Amino acid sequence: MAHRNRPLIAGNWKMNGLRRDGVERARALAGRAAAASPPCDIVLCPPATLIAAVAGIVADGPIEIGGQDCHGAASGAHTGDLSAEMLADAGCRYVIVGHSERRADHGESDGEVRAKAEAAQRAGLSAIVCLGEDESQRDAGRALEVVGAQLAGSLPPEANAANTVVAYEPVWAIGSGRTASATDIAAVHAHLRGLLRARLGDDGGGVRLLYGGSVKPANAAEILAVAEVDGALVGGASLDADDFWAICQSCP
Ligand code: PGA
In angstroms, how far is CA 227 from the centroid of its own chain? Predict the structure, then answer.
């Protein structure tokens, strides 16, 4: 059997949850992870207001915490932003950068995403670098070209398997209930893996490649079994502890 990286399931809570919901969900997941050692690494990415509380709850178990974004600078006059160092200080080990909602809502370019990934490395965090084509790009047959260009532009020169995770999230599949087919996912992941190996050598094989976009308990096992899929970035279904745990349990 081909080598597989240990799977990583990341829950992106986005801008959802007040303290009571988040704490309850984190406690439920921490309890499950303590009772039965999970078949994957697990990262919860709560809104920044809940990072400290959730970090406290999962502190003694295997679940790690991630931020949803960071600024490229370590500190300074950037009202409303958070640095990677602040996230690390609050208990994070990961940070999502370049999510398509940030690329769309905040006009983040590949260059800015790369600066954020660099900031993550500087702070000792692993960056979960997101990329993915939109619907018109897929319809035009340009998906591989688009994700290849995003990968080239968004990964910092010092990227390696320890400090970088790549999440392929077709924009049209996020929050839509539509997932890419196993064949399409396999084609994109094989392409990204080839580019990572060309750029990083053997280490490119160890960079975990996640799929994201309407991953649910019902489709997780099929998606997670696809070659070169090393886990999932889960949005909507990560807001329900039972669903998220079922996805974690679906890892091969
Ligand atoms: P979704 O979100 O699972 O709700 O489609 C995925 C993501 O945006 O990371």
Answer: 18
> How far apart are the C-alpha atoms of 90 and 220, rounded to whole Å?
31
Which pLDDT tens digit goes with each residue over 138-179?
999 999 999 999 999 999 999 999 999 999 999 999 999 888
The answer to whether 169 is a known catalytic residue is yes
Atom of ligand 1 nearest to the CA of 176: 5
The pLDDT value given to residue 2: 60
Label residue 140 exposed, middle or buried (CB < 10 Å: 0-12, 13-18, 19+): exposed
Q: Which atom of ligand 1 is nearest to the CA of 100?
A: 8
CA–centroid distance, residue 111 to ligand 1 (Å):
23
- Identify whether the C-beta of residue 179 lies closer than 8 Å to the C-beta of residue 218: no
Q: How far is the CA of 1 from the centre of ligand 1 (A)?
A: 30
pLDDT for 70 beyond 70: yes
Average pLDDT over residues 26-41: 96
Across 68-215, the runs of DSSP E, i.e. the strands, are: 94-97, 126-131, 164-168, 208-212
Q: Tell me whether residue 99 is one of the annotated catalytic residues.
A: yes
